[in-house]
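User: For my dataset I need records formatted as: sequence, then structure tokens, nothing else. Please produce one.
Assistant:
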Amino acid sequence: MWPNADETRELLLQAKEGDNEAVDRLMSRHRQALRRMVELRLDRALARRVDASDIVQDALLEASRRLASYLQKPSMPFHLWLRHLARDRIVDAHRRHRVAHRRTVDRERPLQGSAFGSHSSLELINQLSAAGLTPAAAAIRHELEQRFHTALETLDDSDRELLVMRHFEQLSNQEVATALNLSQPAASMRYLRALRRLRLRIADQDGESRA
């Protein structure tokens, strides 16, 4: 999902030397991935009033303003820094537009809308179905995908966020640990527990369907 890290590092070096064109290329090449990251986290009600492109643009403008400071002392990889800026703006948008409904701003319900590509969904579905929870026949694949999304929606925010970061943003365990300020073993353990809970939710649905 995110641009090649080696090319990003090269552009960062050029930007640090004062190359404005490198800065423009740096922001431009991350725009699509950042937009996808935002779309994954805007619920449908908010998405009707807030365009993901506006949030991305605000985040990129802020990144441009703060880039010199970041380059002096980068605290995390560039793409994680960008998504941190964008996430702050998502939270701000929820505060502005959903406060009247008394809704918790951190519950972003990422599975709404069409932001989730089928490739990432099916990749995780295959991993789960390999445990024998449901038949692997192609005829029930669509039904399984429906159960998968329903089950993922029922998870706690922290579990769902970990699975989104790993399987839809395609972040490594190390990147997740950095983004969430966790140790790598802690991030790995939380991910495995989230995956286990998701598997159980799908199994519960399968049992109800058979009943």
